Amino acid sequence: MTDQSLSPSPVVVVTGANGLVGSRVCTALVDRGLRVRAVVRRAGAAPAGPGVEERVGEFHDPSFAASVVAGADAVVTTVHPMGSDRAAQHRIGVEGTPVIARAARDAGVARLVHVSTAAVYDRSPGAGDVDESATLVGDDGGDYPVTKRDTDAALARVDGLTRILVRPPAILGAGDSSVWNTLRPAAMRDDEEARRAAPDQSFPWVHVDDLVTLIADLAAGRVGVAEDPASGPVEGGCTAVNVAADPARLRDYYETVTGALGVEPVWQDTPAWTGRLLSERARKWGWSPKVDLDGALAEIAEGLHASR
């Protein structure tokens, strides 16, 4: 009889393992007893520690992708070159992400978790509340939303494994590469234009730690497959899931940042989306956020005060 205690732990491949989300996913997976192959482009960039094996290469290179997913149980993809030109975003996201997805399928990997974005939805003024069946952004929606939308569509065409598209809104959480805790506040400090906002516009958000909890649970198989997406990811299908915390307005975020920086927001009376990003599906899968709005905003303010 085989001693199950001697069986090797499941293996999860994580792309973008040095990023705000990817690095935390690696840690969360190890905490759940899994082994991680952390994919990075530079040697020494992956999180260090027991249970994490760094793999250096381009995940969209077919040979490298095939080698890194061999024998793995799940793959988590977190990479999209946000801020690059549209051609680069298309090449890495739309064309590149399906490369590792096909390699995972061909290697017999059961599950792929892709970090998408709620920016794929049409959130123009009057659009109303947004769930996973909502209208997607049009071709004029901007480089990042459109290429993320098209990456999701490309993954939907990769049959043969269970694919889960996790769609977070603004990701709050400390880190040098954090858009909302670090990079955008720096722009607001230096440029009055970056302080302009419609105060009542919806500001859907999630804390990175809560986001990572769902991603890690999905990759670890703690959320079981189902025939109905209301109960879990559809086995062998491609299922989207929104992940958002308490409702908020741009006023909440902008007043926190400008107050910590000692500058004034510039309010604009312009039409804006005032709906909600609905995440009932994630909650039915067993997820619930632990970080509330006050806690997330306080973390931002503390970080900005400390950096002044």
TrEMBL record:
Pfam families: Epimerase. Transmembrane segments: none annotated. Residues 12-216 form the NAD-dependent epimerase/dehydratase domain. InterPro entries: Epimerase_deHydtase, Lipid_A_modif_metabolic_enz, NAD(P)-bd_dom_sf. PANTHER family: BIFUNCTIONAL POLYMYXIN RESISTANCE PROTEIN ARNA (PTHR43245). This is Nucleoside-diphosphate-sugar epimerase. It comes from Nocardioides panaciterrulae. The lineage of its organism: Bacteria, Bacillati, Actinomycetota, Actinomycetes, Propionibacteriales.
